[in-house]
Amino acid sequence: MRVAEMSSTTSEQGAEPLAAPISDEELTALALAAGDAELPDDAVPWRPGDVPQAILAEWYMPAAVTGRRDWKARVVAGAFIGSLVLINGAGLCVTYGRVILG
Fold first, then answer.
1. pTM of this prediction?
2. How far is Cα 87 from Cα 99, in angstroms, rounded to an integer?
């Protein structure tokens, strides 16, 4: 019997203790008791590997674009990445925008 990990300490507000651990059997019983959910008529099924449909708005998550960059963009990107690797390899840190030891 596997038990879901839950803390028995108090919640973030500190007002009341968190629930006791829940076993797999209890979770299964809760899931079976829930029954089938009513789906709206305009619900869109999702399966991994399906052809993507316009579920999200284009402005929220635009479609991925493939294509080749010109050689200038590749040189700039390579120089930038190379400089970061060299700076970090030399033991310097550029995490906060300035080059510092550490």
1. 0.35
2. 8
Cα R_g (the chain), whole angstroms: 26
Distance CA 92, CA 54 (A): 45
CA distance 70 to 22: 57
Instruction: Give the pLDDT confidence of 37-74 residue by residue, as tens digits.
Output: 788 888 877 776 666 566 666 677 777 777 787 899 99
Q: Any residues with CB less than 8 A from the CB of 41 and at least 6 apart, and which?
A: none
Going by C-alpha positions, the residue among 15, 21, 18, 20 that lies closest to residue 2 is 21
Q: What is the domain partition of the chain in residue ranges?
A: 70-102
Give bridge partners of residue 23 from the DSSP assignment.
3
| Main-chain phi, psi angles of 101, to 5 degrees | -75, 140
